[in-house]
Write a structure and sequence with these properties.
Elements lengths: L1 H28 L2 E4 L5 E2 L12 E4 H6 L3 E2 L31 H4 L13 E10 L2 E5 L10 E6 L2 E2 L14 H12 L3 E5 L11 E6 L6 H7 L4 E2 L8 H14 L9
Length: 255
C-alpha cells in the first residue's frame, strides 16, 4: 500500500512539474523584449544597443520573426530557440517567412537575395509609386491580391483626390507602368508590413535582380521618401542627390 501511494505521489509531482514547465514557457512567449529598426537581435529594456530605436515585441513574436538574442544584455530565451548550427534564422529561409531586408542587415538594396523573396505578378498600376500584384502562393499573412506602396519612394501625384496632376506625374506613372505591368517580380519587406491604409509596403525586384524602388529615384522619376524610417534610407537619399546633380527626370529643369 505504501509503495502504491509513493508511486502515485511521484506521478502527481511529475505532472505538476510538466504543467509548471508549460506555464513557464507560455509566460516566456509573452515576455516583452525590444528590437531596433535595423538590427537582427532582440534585447532587454535599457540595452546599449537600443540607443537609436526601441520597438517592443513579445519574445515569441521576436523569435518567429527571425530575431536572435543579444549577446551583451543576455535577454530571456525560449527553449529550443537556438538551432544546432548556432545561426540565427533569417526570414525567407522557409516558405512562410517573409524576407525582411532589415533583419538580413543588408548594406545596399543590390545585395538582396531573390531566392528568398515572395514572387508575384504585377496586374495593375495606380501611379508611379503604387501597383497591384497577384501572389500565387501567398504566405498566410499576405493576400492573393495586394496593393503595394513602394517603400522609400514618393512620385508626383496623378490620382490623389482633389489635387491636380503634379508636374512630372504622368512621366513617373508611365515609367512604373512600362517597367512593371504584366511582369513577374519579387517582393522584399522592411520593418513595417503595411501602411495606415492597409497597403502592403514592399521593395519590388525585377528578374535581373534590380530594386525598382531604387531605380525610380536613380532615374529621376521620384523622391526619396524619408518621412518614415526605412532600411535603405541613406542609399535612397544618395541616389536622389545623384539624380539632382545629373539633372535626371524631374530634376531636368532645376538649376
Amino acid at each position: 500500500m505504501f509503495r502504491k501511494s509513493a508511486v502515485l505521489s511521484l506521478a502527481f509531482l511529475l505532472f505538476l512539474s510538466v504543467l509548471a514547465g508549460v506555464l513557464s514557457e507560455d509566460a516566456a512567449e509573452n515576455t516583452t523584449v525590444y528590437v531596433t529598426n535595423t538590427g537582427k537581435r532582440y534585447h532587454r529594456e535599457g540595452c546599449s544597443s537600443l540607443r537609436l530605436s526601441q520597438i517592443p515585441l513579445s519574445l515569441g513574436e521576436a523569435v518567429r520573426s527571425g530575431y536572435g538574442p543579444c549577446s551583451i544584455c543576455n535577454p530571456p530565451r525560449l527553449s529550443g530557440e537556438t538551432p544546432e548550427n548556432g545561426k540565427t534564422p533569417v526570414p525567407g529561409e522557409n516558405g512562410n517567412a517573409l524576407y525582411r531586408v532589415n533583419v538580413a542587415e543588408l548594406s545596399l538594396s543590390a545585395e538582396a537575395d531573390l531566392s528568398r523573396m515572395v514572387s508575384a505578378e504585377v496586374i495593375d498600376h495606380v501611379d508611379g509609386d503604387t501597383v497591384r500584384v497577384r501572389i500565387p502562393r501567398a504566405p498566410e499573412n499576405l493576400r492573393a491580391v495586394e496593393t503595394i506602396r513602394l517603400i522609400g519612394v514618393d512620385t508626383p501625384e496623378t490620382v490623389y483626390p482633389g489635387r491636380p496632376v503634379e508636374r512630372f506625374g504622368k512621366e513617373a506613372s508611365d515609367f512604373t507602368r512600362e517597367g512593371l505591368l504584366g511582369k513577374s517580380v519579387y517582393l522584399a519587406f522592411d520593418w513595417d508590413l503595411r501602411d495606415r491604409y492597409g497597403r502592403l509596403l514592399a521593395y519590388i525586384y525585377t528578374g535581373d535582380g534590380r530594386c525598382f524602388n531604387a531605380r525610380i529615384i536613380r532615374e529621376g522619376y521620384g523622391f526619396a521618401y524619408t518621412r518614415y524610417s526605412f532600411h535603405f534610407m541613406e542609399e535612397f537619399r544618395a541616389l536622389e542627390r545623384q539624380a539632382r546633380a545629373k539633372k535626371q527626370g524631374l530634376w531636368a529643369g532645376n538649376k
